[in-house]
Automatic annotation (TrEMBL):
It is found in: Cytoplasm. Homotetramer. It comes from the Bacteria. GO terms for molecular function: oxidoreductase activity; RNA binding; zinc ion binding. GO terms for cellular component: cytoplasm. Residues 16-334 form the Enoyl reductase (ER) domain. Belongs to the zinc-containing alcohol dehydrogenase family. Quinone oxidoreductase subfamily. Pfam families: ADH_N (PF08240), ADH_zinc_N_2 (PF13602). Keywords: Cytoplasm, Metal-binding, NADP, Oxidoreductase, RNA-binding, Zinc. This is Zinc-type alcohol dehydrogenase-like protein.
Length: 337
């Protein structure tokens, strides 16, 4: 089967950083689906793994943790899906990625694809939807009801992949006042379109920006990028006993700065359930099915930013380069081999 992989961590402008290769077809385990991959999207985790994880023993390493496709075969213990089902999922970071014609995945972290979307639009959703959902409802423990409880959420990096779906979830399913941050006119317009009540510029001091829009302090912060650079501003922006959630990988974080206000810190990593095969691993199946229902109802919309064409090494290198530039808006998708 066709696949895109790398053999050594190289800069993305090197043609060997991602290569078109051929691999044997995978075989589904007892709880696995064998999926015919129709579309994929690209996430920052792809670039981080490519840059920092050297393949073992000279083997090819396949990336890709967002897939939309069709079930081609099922394992002996599969009960949630059948051959021919259209599915979408983010997969497991402990297994080979989905940048290949065929891919195996545990059924417990797979959802039925939204009926109203094509494969490319569906592929933009799983990783970011799971991350945003778990951050909002499980880490920050925000109630799924529209009642205004005087709570507010500042989303730092609201125009990115996770921010694009988190902004919608917070606006559509909660009573939060949603404030998104973006630093360019184009991305600020995108965040408003997604439903943010207000938009601030995170290239400026955040407390001053919140004062500018009349928001004062916020009760919750979702810091999706450059948490270490923004930490002092985030602590200042948070009301006493507020909650800070993050998804990025700061080199260091002085959490003692949170003590004076009794702020709580929450880390979201959507691969935890699949990595440790937690008892509630199947919650990601339930979650993705719920997201599909919300998409089909028109409550949420896909967050495709750009379609980069066919799934091949050249187009994936372009996608990685755009992500590494920090200028991506929404999700980058690729479709078909």
């Amino acid at each position: 089967m066709k696949a895109i992989a790398y053999y050594a961590s190289l800069p993305i402008d090197d043609p060997k950083s991602l290569q078109d290769i051929e691999l044997p077809e995978p075989v589904a385990g007892p709880r696995d689906l064998l999926v015919e991959v129709r579309a994929i999207s690209v996430n920052p985790v792809d670039t981080k793994v490519r840059q920092n994880v050297q393949p073992e023993g000279g083997a090819a390493k396949v990336l890709g943790w967002d897939v939309a496709g069709v079930v081609k075969a099922v394992g002996s213990d599969v009960s949630l899906f059948k051959v021919g089902d259209r599915v979408f999922y983010a997969g497991s970071i402990a297994r080979a990625g989905g940048n290949s014609e065929l891919h195996t995945v545990d059924e417990r972290i797979v959802g039925h694809m939204p009926k109203s979307l094509d494969f490319a639009a569906a592929a933009a959703l799983p990783l970011t939807a799971i991350t945003a959902w778990e951050l909002l409802f499980e880490r920050l423990q925000i109630s799924q009801e529209p009642a205004d409880k005087g709570q507010s959420l500042l989303i730092v990096g609201a125009a990115g992949g996770v921010g694009s779906i988190l902004t919608q979830l917070a606006r559509q399913l909660t009573g939060l006042k949603v404030i998104g941050s973006a630093s360019r006119e184009q991305t600020q317009a995108w965040v408003r379109e997604l439903g943010a009540h207000a938009v601030v510029d995170h290239s400026q001091p955040l407390s001053a920006e919140l004062q500018r829009i009349g928001a004062g302090q916020v009760t919750h912060v979702a810091s999706l990028t450059q948490t270490d650079a923004h930490l002092d501003q985030l602590v200042e922006a948070l009301a006493p006993q507020g909650k800070l959630a993050l998804i990025d990988d700061p080199k260091s974080l002085d959490v003692t700065k949170l003590k004076r206000k009794s702020l709580s810190l929450h880390w979201e990593f959507m691969y935890t359930r699949s990595l440790f095969e937690t008892a509630d691993m199947q919650e990601q199946h339930v979650l993705l099915n719920r997201v599909a229902e919300l998409i089909d109802a028109g409550t949420l919309k896909t967050t495709v930013g750009e379609h980069f064409g066919q799934i091949n090494a050249a187009n994936l290198r372009r996608a990685h380069a755009l992500l590494e530039s920090g200028k991506a808006r929404g999700k980058i998708v690729l479709e078909g081999f």
